[in-house]
Structures are given as structure tokens and as C-alpha cells.
Design a protein that fits this description.
Layout: E1 23-24, E2 33-42, H1 59-65, E3 70-72, E4 78-80, E5 83-88, E6 94-99, H2 113-126, E7 137-144, E8 147-152, H3 159-163, E9 193-195, E10 205-210, E11 219-228, H4 232-240, E12 246-249, H5 252-259, E13 265-278, H6 292-301, H7 304-311, E14 316-318, H8 342-351, E15 358-364, H9 371-382, E16 386-392, H10 398-404, E17 409-415, H11 420-428, H12 441-451, H13 459-471, E18 475-487, E19 491-493, E20 507-509
Parallel strand pairs: 2-11, 15-16
Antiparallel strand pairs: 1-5, 3-4, 5-6, 6-8, 7-8, 9-10, 10-11, 12-18, 13-17, 13-18, 14-18, 19-20
Helix pairs in contact: 6-8, 12-13
Length: 511
């Protein structure tokens, strides 16, 4: 890969994500690409182009230069990529992968089982934002060039998802020992594109050109360009003037403004759920939150229908659950479990001994909590005696919210992937979003059974877990938000399950 200059800006991200199946097939062959250019607008700035730093909305940048072990299809299913077959043992603590034997890195060295082992061990050791996804991997054993076994300390139902995501990106191990971490600026993988140094301006535009000797099926575009924008108004203008071919819009007003533009094509996708994530269910910072009746009162206080109508122009669907519609845990009953009922909320607070309410201080990142949402939540909670004050936090300092543990909760947008265990791992188990490690006997009993079974077999336990979380009011969800994929009319866009920005494989010329 060709070298690019350093100086990338860093946008700190907070994120967010399948059941163990056996798959086999051949990914096909072909080289090069078409003659067209695909120009994608994004609000995401990648920290670097080293796979150890990959994750979240930046994944498409990495998909251009690196292949993953498994490919995640638009519907969330998995198909072969660098691995052609995968199979768990009986207790799901070993995952055996069969690899392609005909793939090489740019320097001619072979992609093989040793490369897989080196990549995974480095990924876990580097402690990037997604390193935790391999925390259950005890060891990686190489049988021969095309067979490797991942030994797990316990079953992890999300492992196949991770192998189609950041943890599955495969770089050339020859780059690992070089000084200065060259992969940050010189990606070296087996992917369908090479980074073009001459046309790339880090922090503004990344240009990839089709790799001439790519082993896999060719993609329809010879050149792939990601352009960074710091606001959606500029993206809308870029689509209108055809300087940009494709983008995703989150802001409801921007979505409405572009839909009537001549030649524009749009596709809706329900992706993020916006919620007040309650961290302090044990009452360490706000003692009142230890009582489930208080948390239930917060849920009854929120006027979700009005918020959705006024703040998001009706673009989304009200919900009281954190699990998305594509999961086995999802239950339509829990989209409307908590009606807007201030009187009931006040009665619950009275029963819990907080008739006069209490104070709640939350961090506010304006990009996530605009003025209208901040005011709406203050008014709704104030109506039941809960005094909400906001403390503005710069987005660059978002990580401190989770390390300093100064706040009892936070309004966040979280993805709703079809893999139930992603949601459980990120929002329920002790970790980033359960920073105080709250658990109870019901959850402790359900989680091991869910963990040891395939998703379909665990459906009953997953539904039971969801019901428990809703009724115990572990969270205060508002609504699932509708995003809008837009193109200038020249591109067909297929949304990607589990991602806001589609995979690079999900774009094709419009017919």
C-alpha cells in the first residue's frame, strides 16, 4: 500500500455489535473493478487505518483495504470471506475455521492460519475500542496453513459477528514489527482496494483504488472515496449538486429537506434507539434510583409520542425496550409498556418515599441532546418533581463519562443489531454502559443459559430477559430513530443490519 501523510483528526466514539452457525461456500474470484467512482459522505473520522483501532461507523474505511474472516450480509447473516467454513464444538467453547489457501498480501506473503493468530493476538493486546470483543478467547491454535481453532473461556454467541467486524479484519503481520505503527497511515491487507496517497487528504478525503490482483469478486467501482463533513447541511448540498453520490442522514429536518429534490433516491432504516441509559441502578450516586419504582416513574413521566412528533418529525417508532425488532428477544408488547402518565409516576415516587422528588444531573453532548430534547426531558421530569440539570460535555471528552463515573445516567443513541448478545454484552453485562456492575438474581440465572445456546433455542430466555429489563426499568428508552440513506440517483444503496453506514459491498449502480 502507498504511504499517506499523518495528521488525522480523532473523533472519539462511543458504541456500540451472531448466533453460532455453521457455514460453507466459495466466495468466488475476480480482479479489479469497474470504471466508475463512488463518492460517499460521512460524519465519521477514523482514528487511524490500523485494524486494531477499527470499529463503529468507521468500519467501511477498513473494509476497503482489509477483508474480514466472515462477511456480514445486509440482513445480518454470515457468508464466507477469508474463512470458507466455520463450526463450533458441542459446548460452543471451540470455533474451528477453515481458511482460503490462495490469498496473499501485497508483499507476496501468504494469508494463512499463522496470520489469523497474529492478528487476533495483536488486536486483543492493543486494547482498542473493540479489543473486548475477544476477551473470551483463551488461545488460538494453528493446525495447519488453512485451519485454526479459537478456544473460548466460555461460549460467546456474538463471536461470528465479531469475526465479520473489527476483530475479523486481517492485516499483514509483516507490518506489526515495523516501528511507528505504519498501519495507521499505510493499510496493508488483502482487501478490494488500495489507498491512493496522492489523492488522499487525511481528515478530509480518503481515496481508494481497486486492487489489481484482488482475489475475490470484483466490486462495481474502480475508485471509492470517503469525504468527511462536520454537518449534515453540507452533505445535503453535496447530494443536491452531485458532488456526493451517497450518504446517510440522521437529522429529521435534513431528511425532509432532501426527499423532494430532483433525482434523489432514498431508503429508510430504523437503526439507533435513543434512550436515557441509567448507570446507577444501585444508588451509589443517586440513592433514589436503587428503587425500581423510581425508575418506572421516570418511564411513565416521558411523553414519547410528543417528543417523536416534535423533535424527530415523527421519524421513528416509540419503544420501551432496548432490543431491536430483528432480535429474538424483541416483543412488540414492550414498545408501549409505559404510557405517559405523570399521575402514576408521582404515585410510584410517593410509594418509594420520594414524594418531593429528587435531583438528577446528567451529561449533555449537544450533538446527541439538542436544545429541544434537553428542554422536553427537563419539562417531563420536572412535572413529577424530578429536577433535571444538564452539564455540557465536549464530545472529545466522552470517554471520561465512563471512566470517571460521575453521572447516574446519560442520553445516548445505541444501535440495535440483530444479534441479541451484542445488546446484552454492551448494555446489560458489567462494562462500559453498566459501569457500576449492577446485576440481580434473575439476570444472573438467565444469562448463562442464553450464552450456552443458539439464539433460536434461547428465544424463551431472551424474551424473559427483555421482559425483566423492561419491568424493572433498567433503561428509559424513547424511540427507535429512522435514518435516511440518500443518493444522487446514480447509486442503489442497501442498508446494512447493525451499521448506520452501509458496508462497501452494499452499493451498486442504479439501473
Amino acid at each position: 500500500m502507498r504511504k499517506i501523510t499523518k495528521g488525522a483528526a480523532l473523533a472519539a466514539a462511543c458504541a456500540a455489535a451472531a448466533a453460532g452457525l455453521t457455514g460453507c461456500a466459495d466466495a468466488g474470484g475476480g480482479a479489479g473493478g469497474g470504471s466508475d467512482t463512488l463518492k460517499i459522505a460521512t460524519l465519521t473520522l477514523p482514528q487511524s487505518l490500523d485494524p486494531a483501532d477499527a470499529g463503529g461507523s468507521a468500519l467501511p474505511f477498513f473494509q476497503a483495504a482489509y477483508d474480514t474472516l466472515l462477511k456480514r450480509e445486509p440482513d445480518g447473516s454470515f457468508s464466507p470471506m477469508l474463512a470458507t467454513k466455520w463450526e463450533y464444538n458441542a459446548d460452543r467453547t471451540e470455533l474451528r475455521l477453515t481458511l482460503r489457501g490462495d490469498v496473499k498480501f501485497d508483499d507476496g506473503s501468504a494469508f494463512d492460519a499463522k496470520a489469523v493468530k497474529a492478528n487476533m493476538e495483536r488486536f486483543a493486546k492493543k486494547k482498542g475500542s473493540q479489543a473486548r470483543t475477544l476477551q473470551d478467547v483463551k488461545s488460538i491454535e494453528v493446525a495447519d496453513a488453512t485451519h485454526v481453532t479459537m478456544k473460548l473461556s466460555k461460549p460467546n454467541p456474538a463471536m461470528l459477528f465479531y469475526l465479520s467486524d473489527a476483530a475479523g479484519l486481517m492485516a499483514n503481520p509483516a507490518s506489526f514489527a515495523k516501528p511507528g505503527d505504519p498501519l495507521k497511515t499505510r493499510p496493508d491487507g488483502t482487501g478490494p482496494y488500495d489507498l491512493d496517497a496522492k489523492q488522499t487528504a487525511i481528515g478530509t478525503r480518503w481515496v481508494f483504488t481497486a486492487a489489481p490482483r484482488y482475489w475475490g469478486a470484483k466490486l462495481p467501482y474502480k475508485t471509492l472515496t470517503f469525504s468527511y463533513f462536520n454537518n449534515e447541511t453540507a452533505i445535503v448540498n453535496g447530494i443536491r449538486t452531485k458532488q456526493i453520490n451517497a450518504a446517510v442522514l440522521q437529522d429529521a429536518d435534513k431528511q425532509i429537506s432532501i426527499e423532494s429534490a430532483a433525482g434523489v433516491k432514498t431508503v429508510k432504516q430504523e437503526f439507533d434507539v435513543q434512550s436515557l441509559l441509567l448507570f446507577d441502578r444501585g444508588g451509589a450516586l443517586v440513592p433514589a434510583l436503587k428503587d425500581a419504582r423510581v425508575r418506572q416513574a421516570l418511564n411513565h413521566a416521558i411523553d414519547r409520542d410528543t417528543m417523536l412528533s416534535k423533535i424527530r418529525q415523527g421519524r421513528g417508532k416509540v419503544t420501551n425496550q432496548i432490543f431491536g425488532t430483528g432480535t429474538k428477544a424483541y416483543d412488540p408488547r414492550f414498545d408501549s409498556y409505559y404510557a405517559h402518565d405523570p399521575a402514576k409516576a408521582k404515585e410510584l415516587l410517593k410509594q418509594a418515599g420520594h414524594e418531593n422528588g429528587f435531583a438528577l444531573k446528567l451529561p449533555r453532548i449537544p450533538a446527541i441532546v439538542p436544545d429541544a430534547l434537553a428542554s422536553s426531558l427537563q419539562a417531563d421530569l420536572g412535572a413529577i418533581g424530578v429536577k433535571l440539570t444538564w452539564e455540557n460535555v465536549d464530545q472529545s471528552a466522552i470517554r471520561k463519562i465512563f471512566t470517571d463515573r460521575r453521572y447516574p445516567g446519560m442520553v445516548m443513541n445505541n444501535g440495535q443489531p440483530a444479534t441479541d448478545w451484542i445488546t446484552i454484552g454492551e448494555l446489560v453485562l458489567p462494562g462500559t454502559f453498566n459501569m457500576f456492575g449492577t446485576m440481580d438474581d434473575r439476570i444472573k440465572g438467565l444469562v448463562p443459559r442464553i450464552q450456552a445456546a443458539e439464539a433460536e433455542q434461547a428465544r424463551g430466555d431472551l424474551r424473559a430477559l427483555n421482559e425483566h429489563l423492561v419491568k424493572e426499568a433498567w433503561f428509559v428508552p424513547f424511540y427507535r430513530m429512522s435514518y435516511l440513506h440518500v443518493s444522487d440517483g446514480s447509486v442503489k444503496i442497501t442498508p446494512q443490519e447493525g451499521m448506520a453506514l452501509p458496508s462497501i459491498y452494499n452499493y451498486s449502480p442504479a439501473k
